[in-house]
Amino acid sequence: MAEEQRSESTLTVLVALGANFAIAVLKLVAGLITGSAAMLAEAAHSVADTFTEVFLLTALRRSGRPADRRHPFGYGKERYVWSLLAAVSIFASGAVFALYEGISTIVGGGEEQESAWVAYLVLGLAFVLEGVSWLRAVKQVRAEAAQENRRPREYLRLADDPTVKTVFLEDSAALIGLLLAFGGLVLHGLTGDGVWDGLASVLIGVLLAVVAYILGRTNLRLLIGRQADPVIVRDIRRRLSAAPEVDAVVDLLTMVTGTDRVLLCARLDFADDLTAHELELACVRIAAELTERYTELDEIFLEPVPRTDPELRARVLARYGRPLRSD
After folding, report:
1. What CATH number matches the domain at 230-320, 3.30.465.10, 3.30.70.1350, 3.40.50.300, 3.10.105.10?
2. CB neighbours of residue 258 within 10 Å
3. pTM of the predicted model as reported, rounded to 2 decimal places
4. CB atoms within 10 A of CB 58
5. 2-224 adopts what CATH topology?
6. Using one digit for the tens of pLDDT, what is the confidence trace for 81-138?
């Protein structure tokens, strides 16, 4: 399943890369011919998106390497590093240029609009190409959300794969940006005032900044070490509490170590009458049952502890504010 999703993500990124590169060239030519700030801002937008896809392809390739001695938990988090760089690229090469171009046009009054039909033609072609890429991303989001029995919005919020989320958000922003550029060109043509063109460029810059912030925040949380899906965590806690050898779940720690990879550490108070051999067998059986139920559990550590230990209890209370419960 993980390999299939990785292939789907790669195809989604490749479709977006081809579309954005072609669109960037068209927008740049149209911007130079018409002198439109909005078109130049959209060209910068597409250039940023093209660099973003390159970063995402690098993320998919490098994060798939197996664990080794230097990185015993694998390279999964490297996907979040490259995805974070993609967010920085959107802001640095897209938002900043669009804001600068828009403000300069507003302050300077803008240039007289020339060959507007070229810009309209390019915007139409760009909308079709971006639409193809966007539909591809939407298809993958809906399919993966259905697999997890979630709404697409909830899936995007909780997903540990930043690639499809990045493509979906940048393509959505691209379609909105095209509409803003079209509006700026139309109003510039109707009024003869270049301020509208500059305003469209500023709005495109703000849009890109918002997208970059959302993606940057998402990848930052994953890099720091986000908890696994709360639904999975609650179910694991119930299963551990239901094990006949376990008297209480004292502490339960999870961390996303990559796409479809979760590290689990559970501190359990086992029944006092268990022998050392029975305790070992219980740990092996519980870990095997959890791995069979949740394939994303990459590493599982079960630690026997007494629930009455005051230091451990204080640490749990400091983290959660209350003792863990099985419900």
Report:
1. 3.30.70.1350
2. 23
3. 0.78
4. 17
5. Alpha-lytic protease prodomain-like (1.20.1510)
6. 888 888 888 887 788 888 888 888 888 765 566 677 787 888 888 888 888 888 888 9
